[in-house]
Design brief:
It is built from 16 helices and 39 strands. The chain is α+β, with helices and mostly antiparallel strands and about 800 residues long. It has a 9-stranded antiparallel sheet with strand order 12-13-16-17-26-23-22-19-20, with helices on one face. The protein has a 7-stranded antiparallel sheet with strand order 27-28-29-31-32-39-36, with no helix packed on it. β28 and β29 form a beta hairpin. The longest helix has 20 residues.
């Protein structure tokens, strides 16, 4: 699939669909071939090698005088004695055949310091050679245990320290040093088949080890080996872009990037190294494959689509529900403007043009620029589904709304020792609205010194939670160190359906309180919720809200509408047209409909017959992200929630969200909704939500279970859980449908490894319909039943949608 086709899909369908998982240019069984050693390096390849070596010359090593003096003292202590030109004896460095990580750091630092001394004084070259030959004689570098790729300091610094000696090595020692470091960093991974690489991709390896692989390949003085390794390096970069299975790193079909067995934007700084080295290969025959480039583009575009726009790299934030264990400050996109431009040039190089105009269109949009003047204009307003997150993202004007909820395999909050200690509710069916400009205009904590102290951890916007009154109880294990990944206990129906100008998110959730062992006092929280987004508004329903257990009677269950940290320029909270005073709080009963505009301009409408609505504009003091042992902080916040009571059964809610609202606009929207002109709730029960947008006659269905006998629109029944949207044309002779099942049906193979299974879909439509002749859908069958209704059948897989166009028979 061409990138322009992806762009068309993104803009028109509002959905990030698949590229072919099996790389067209990298067959699953392919390997990076070792050239015959008798072959000469072609003149073209030799010129490319010379060009790359000149462009990416080795930097001379640097070390302080203290480091050099320490290295010389250590050299004497090793009692070195030269046996011949290549062998040196001395103190035995190997213990049980290996070298400790601590010793490896010292030896690497010694190599760098002695090499730096050799640069300053030629006579010091002999000391360096003596030391290196000593390491080679005992195979010391090869005997260093394999690094944990997440040990960022060692895996980046130790090989770099050894390789820093290359500029002052002779040919033979360069080759021996490169061979040893290649063994240390497991460079043979580059020669695995594409199929095996796909099963072993690791974002930490890409981020930390890629620079070492490039240096070892490019600066090998044996040109044949250099060509071989550069070819393998290119193969490796390309093969790593394949879509990996289950919870493995990195790229997924919908454009999300995985680490720690789930979608994790915060760890996608691996993209930086990946694209940097793709860029180093452009202009040569070692360039990456085109389909690999397309997959990387999709990943970058998807990452940016989840975030607000900016004219620079600052304040480009995505939802806190996607922040992993770094709430609020782990929300900035870690892929720079410069690297985006590099990727655009990589695409141009592949196609033999100055730059890729299609990716350049996205760049112009995301950075609000005309830098690439000839690139087609892109407007990315619309809805996007990321069902490997699982999340729905609705973009318009200067804001982005993000909906998210965990499943049994996708965690919603990651809690580490003294990190994100109160993050279990991070994406409990959240609905966040983010504004351009970063954390402050989005109402999120922005004072890094407070480490988020002052934020009420019970209340992520849109979430449904049990409110803790004892912060200790909110931490896994009741301490500052126990780990926890917040998942559902049994449910996997969570995700989104994107369609043209609208989208639907839904989730059935039952809270898991265990992580191996019990980590929390069980509250057995459950809910079903949906959000229908259209025309710049988001209408939310919740049903089946329940919480039961042996926990305190002051722990209420609530659906949290918003929490906004106030600041200069973001202070006014409006409730039913009046300014709500700071230091005040109130509760509003079910007889009154309420509309509000938060200090950060997000509007809310709550219809009559709601549970008690609590509104507060107060200063609050809460612990920081590091736990209760750390210093707490204070913030002034405006917040509101619907209180469902203590240990409720079958509670529900309705509310509408209007981003970038003014009081005047909210008053108009509230009046129209009261008169039935905007949204109509047609069904709200545990198994089914149905909402109609009246101006467009678009009906959104969230089937949490099979249902039949429906008469809300054309859809009569569904044989499985399903997301559906339908819209008829003006004369009623044409019908458009969008369908998706975000349930990936994960089948566990072993811990954290699973395979997705398709869902056989069957829906019944009122009346007789046929497919439009020019709108065939692969894998879809259509027929009639004995009632004279139409039956559509298909297999839905990987959370992907299908779009169906029908006409009356």
């Amino acid at each position: 699939m061409k990138l322009k086709d992806i762009i068309k899909t993104l803009v028109l369908a509002g959905s990030v669909l698949l590229l072919t998982p099996a790389a067209a240019d990298i067959p699953a069984s392919s390997e990076a071939k070792h050239p015959d050693s008798s072959e000469d390096v072609s003149s073209i390849r030799q010129k490319e090698l010379d060009m790359l070596r000149e462009k990416y010359r080795l930097a001379y090593p640097k070390a302080s005088e203290k480091e050099i003096e320490t290295a010389r003292i250590q050299l004497q202590l090793h009692q070195l004695k030269r046996v011949n030109e290549s062998e040196v004896t001395g103190k035995n460095l190997l213990k049980n055949g290996t070298v400790s990580q601590q010793e490896a750091r010292k030896l690497g630092s010694m190599a760098r310091a002695l090499a730096a001394a050799a640069v300053q004084e030629k006579q010091c070259v002999q000391q360096l050679n003596l030391f290196l030959d000593y390491l080679f004689t005992q195979n010391v570098i090869e005997s260093i245990p394999a690094f944990r790729y997440s040990n960022y300091s060692d895996v980046r610094n130790v090989p770099a320290d050894f390789l820093s000696a290359l500029p002052v090595c002779d040919r033979q020692r360069k080759m021996r040093l490169i061979a040893a470091v290649k063994h240390l960093v497991e460079a043979e991974k580059m020669y695995l088949s594409a199929e095996k690489i796909r099963e072993q991709v690791n974002s930490d390896y890409i981020y930390n080890v890629t620079p070492h692989l490039f240096v070892c390949a490019l600066h090998n003085p044996d040109n044949k080996l250099a060509v071989r390794d550069l070819s393998a390096f290119s193969h490796f970069l390309s093969a790593c872009t394949q879509y990996s299975p289950s919870g493995q790193d990195v790229l997924k079909l919908d454009g999300t990037g995985f680490h720690h067995n789930s979608h994790y934007n915060g760890y996608m700084y691996a993209y930086k190294t990946w694209v940097e080295y793709m860029g180093k290969l452009k202009g040569t025959s070692f360039r990456i494959k085109k389909d690999a480039y397309q997959r990387m583009c999709k990943a970058i575009v998807s990452l940016y689509l989840m975030a607000v726009r900016s004219d620079s790299d600052k304040n480009r934030i995505f939802g806190n529900s996607m922040a992993g264990r770094h709430p609020f400050y782990g929300t900035e996109v870690a892929f720079s403007q410069d690297l985006f431009e590099t990727l655009i040039e990589v695409g141009g190089d592949i196609d033999g043009v100055p730059y890729d105009p299609e990716l350049a269109s996205w760049y112009n949009y995301f950075y609000k620029t005309k830098k690439y003047a000839d690139a087609p204009e892109v407007n990315a307003d619309g809805y996007y589904q990321f069902n490997f997150s699982p999340a729905g993202v609705y973009r318009k004007d200067n804001w982005v709304a993000v909906m998210r909820c965990p499943t049994t395999v996708f965690w919603g909050g990651e809690i580490y020792s003294r990190q994100n200690r109160f993050g279990r509710y991070q994406s409990h069916g959240t609905l966040e609205v983010l504004y351009e400009g970063g954390l402050v205009p989005s109402g999120y904590p922005a004072d890094k010194k407070k480490k988020d102290g002052g934020w009420d951890w019970n209340m992520m916007p849109g979430s449904t939670t049990v409110h803790y009154t004892d912060w200790k109880d909110m931490m896994p294990g009741g301490n500052d160190t126990d780990r926890f990944d917040q998942k559902s206990s049994t449910t996997n129906f969570s995700g989104a359906l994107a369609w043209k100008d609208c989208g639907l998110f839904a989730a059935a959730f039952d809270q898991d309180d265990r992580w191996g062992n019990p980590r929390f006092r069980a509250t057995n929280l459950k809910f079903c919720k949906s959000t229908f987004a259209i025309d710049g508004m988001l209408f939310s329903l919740g049903t089946g809200i329940e919480a039961q257990g042996e926990y305190p009677d002051d722990y209420i269950t609530a659906t949290n509408l918003f929490q906004a940290v106030t600041s200069k320029g973001y202070r006014t909270l409006t409730v039913n047209g009046k300014d709500f005073p700071q230091g005040h709080e109130t509760a509003i009963g079910p007889e009154e409909c309420v509309w509000m505009v938060t200090p950060v301009t997000t509007g809310y409408y709550i219809p009559r017959n709601h549970d008690k609505l609590v509104i507060k504009y107060i200063e609050q003091e809460t612990p920081s992200v590091n736990g209760i042992a750390a210093e707490s902080g204070k913030e002034t916040v405006a917040k509101a929630y619907l209180e469902h009571g203590v240990k409720p059964e079958e509670a529900d809610y309705q509310f509408m969200v209007v981003p970038a609202a003014t009081p005047e606009r909210m008053k108009d929207i509230a009046d129209k909704q009261e008169q039935g002109q905007l949204f109509k709730v047609m069904a709200e029960r545990d198994s089914l939500h149905v909402i109609k947008h009246c101006p467009t006659s678009t009906i959104a269905y969230a089937f949490f279970a099979p249902a039949s006998g429906l008469s809300y629109g054309t859809v009569c029944a569904s044989g499985t859980e399903l997301l559906v949207m339908e819209r008829k044309d003006k004369n009623g002779n044409g019908l458009e449908l969008a369908l998706c099942n975000p349930n990936l049906r994960p089948e566990m193979l072993r811990k954290n490894y699973w395979e997705s299974r398709p869902t056989p879909m069957a829906i019944e439509l009122k009346g007789k319909w046929k497919l439009k002749p020019d709108k065939k859908v692969s894998g879809l069958t259509i027929g009639q039943n004995e009632r004279g209704n139409t039956i559509l059948k298909a297999k839905l897989a990987e959370g992907n949608p299908i779009y169906v166009s029908l006409i009356k028979l």
